[in-house]
Predict the structure.
Amino acid sequence: MQAPVFWSNPPDAPGLAARLLAPAAALWRWQAARRIARPPRHRPQVPVICVGNLTVGGTGKTPVVSALLQRLGEKGIAAHALSRGYGGTEQGPLRVDPRLHGAAGVGDEPLLLSGFGPAWISRDRAAGARAAEAAGAAAVVLDDGFQNPDLPKDLAILVVDAVAGFGNGRVVPAGPLREPVERGIARADLVIALGPEKARERLLSDWPALGRLPVLGGTLAPLPTGMPWQGLRCLAFAGIGRPGKFFATLEALGADIVATRAFPDHASYPRAILQRLAAEADRLGAQLVTTEKDAVRLPEDFRHRVLTLPVRLSLGDWGPLDDALDRVLAPRK
């Protein structure tokens, strides 16, 4: 789904559409509050670390989850990722195996996470956590699930896109929020704000309630692969929450972007669309380039035609995150 333009309006001028949708937003807010207030269905014997957000759409959660899997692994903790498997047909609980599963079955994000550690999909988060525990997980990292009450969270991390912020500050469908900002912050332990420093400063100024929590500033930085992006003539395409972020990252590397094509988040790529992209790239004398998340949704026989630009979480100071992880792990070491 493409986000309505008015969702990005400033909170003090949300627009007529947002005001007209206020009754529907009130119903959403009430239903969300009821769901969140439900008691947990399962209390795992291992720490549950949740990476979530307050808005619909992408904020950079998956790179944060992959970084946590790596960070925990360096601490000697066998952490397993647990995702709903959005966009896939499988219900789970199912451990993702990239040799057996594709994005159509398990979703693109779990498939991507399986490259960093054991990854599970389960529409029933409680059942998924039980399966991960039975398979030897010493910690469970929830990819999303901040508004899901099925599992108690030992550490709740909110990821915020500092540029997009919380949009007009209204709840769906009047705005991009899954729940009111104040309520979400009250249940969180830590905030990771992703974006340029000026955008992070503006975010904290516009939403001072964030200052009640430790706020870690960071970016999604390109992974050095040795690829000479400088001057490379590119046709860039992406089906993620904010394709413009990907295009800007590629441009900052010095790539010569001659065309961009943006698709909805988690978009599938039918053969006809890929043939059109390939034909356009050939006509422009350009190389097709996309994101890691998009690459796993491409057919195997098409991937050789596309370069992938991987990004990784970069924090100005990892100390507060490491301290938070050590606190939740300490009783179980």
Notes: Residues 233-309 form one domain. The two ends are 43 Å apart (CA to CA). The longest strand covers residues 215-222. The mean pLDDT is 93.
